[in-house]
């Protein structure tokens, strides 16, 4: 099913970054150092920081540290990270809705039940395969970021169909992480990391749900006796650490993480990082009990996302994919 290649090895993380300590370390330096240490403890191997999937000899922590110091910190501001982006957008402009957008948002929220039932009814059988075969723009030079790898079903299909140059999977649950490492052990293009992403750096306790934990989420009732702890990192910082930028753009981000989709997209919408993502596909878990204002947040995401991207397909409140506007005529 897959292209035969050299064995994927689980490489150990580089030791804590080896910069010389000084007596005048700033607060910002300390925070970045702490974040780097946390992240390296949750990676089995080095994250690539160069284009074309070449192995970088540069420390991960030094990479994120230098990028956040020399460029705009995407977690704190809404500025561009690179000079190649021509249009500067202030954070207020990014997050504010126009009157017309507000009206559409209100209509979207009011139509939730109708749209959800319609999308859910259609999303059956072969229709669900669109989340795998829709991405005909992918090729052996493409990069994919899969947030919420689970058992690797989506990854297996996309890799088999399009054989991208680089396929990155983030999966915070240890059971699934180990499964993914074993499943893709012979695929040189696959990188698997045991952490999730959201708006903050945190360790979260979650209840395992489903026979194999496949429905586990931080947004469900946490009363189960079967619990585990997962590590979450800020998505904008992870995006940079993975080496993506205006010059090295991400071809596809696919998100299916039991409710974290909202946080991930909202955090990216605070920055211009969305402009560096050519295609965004995500599931919507709007029925999770402890997910705050899912209908409103979903509809708001729709309005903000439509400024930079256009719908490729949509089963509203279920699954959908968006393509960056400047690329629509190119494919």
UniProtKB/TrEMBL annotation:
Residues 1-60 are annotated as: Disordered. Residues 29-40 have a biased composition (Polar residues). The lineage of its organism: Eukaryota, Metazoa, Spiralia, Lophotrochozoa, Mollusca. Transmembrane segments: none annotated. Residues 18-28 have a biased composition (Low complexity). InterPro entries: FkbM_mtfrase, SAM-dependent_MTases_sf. Residues 41-51 have a biased composition (Basic and acidic residues). This is Methyltransferase FkbM domain-containing protein.
């Amino acid at each position: 099913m897959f292209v035969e290649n050299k064995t994927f090895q689980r490489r150990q993380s580089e030791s804590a970054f080896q910069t010389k300590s000084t007596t005048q370390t700033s607060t910002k330096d300390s925070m970045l150092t702490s974040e780097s240490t946390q992240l390296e403890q949750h990676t089995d191997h080095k994250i690539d920081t160069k284009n074309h999937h070449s192995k970088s000899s540069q420390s991960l922590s030094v990479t994120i540290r230098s990028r956040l110091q020399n460029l705009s910190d995407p977690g704190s501001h809404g500025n561009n990270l690179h000079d190649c982006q021509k249009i500067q957008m202030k954070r207020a402009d990014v997050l504010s809705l126009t009157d017309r957008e507000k009206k559409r948002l209100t209509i979207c929220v009011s139509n939730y039940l109708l749209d959800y039932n319609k999308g859910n009814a259609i999303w059956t059988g072969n229709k669900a395969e669109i989340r795998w075969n829709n991405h005909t723009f992918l090729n052996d030079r493409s990069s994919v970021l899969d947030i919420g790898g689970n058992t690797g079903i989506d990854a297996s299909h996309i890799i088999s169909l399009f054989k991208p140059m680089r396929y990155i999977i983030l999966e915070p649950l240890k059971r699934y992480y180990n499964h993914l490492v074993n499943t893709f052990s012979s695929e040189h293009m696959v990188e698997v990391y045991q952490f999730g992403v959201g708006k903050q750096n945190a360790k979260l306790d979650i209840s395992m749900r489903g026979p194999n934990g496949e429905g586990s989420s931080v947004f469900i009732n946490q009363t189960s006796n079967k619990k585990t702890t997962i590590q979450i990192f800020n998505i904008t910082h992870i995006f940079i650490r993975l080496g993506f930028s205006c010059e090295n753009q991400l071809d596809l981000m696919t998100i299916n993480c039991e409710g974290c989709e909202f946080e991930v997209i909202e955090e990216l919408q605070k920055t211009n990082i969305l402009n560096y993502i050519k295609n965004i596909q995500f599931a919507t878990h709007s029925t999770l009990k402890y997910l705050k204002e899912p209908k409103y947040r979903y509809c708001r995401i729709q309005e903000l996302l439509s400024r930079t991207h256009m719908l490729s397909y949509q089963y509203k409140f279920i699954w959908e994919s968006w393509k960056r506007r400047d690329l629509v005529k190119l494919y």
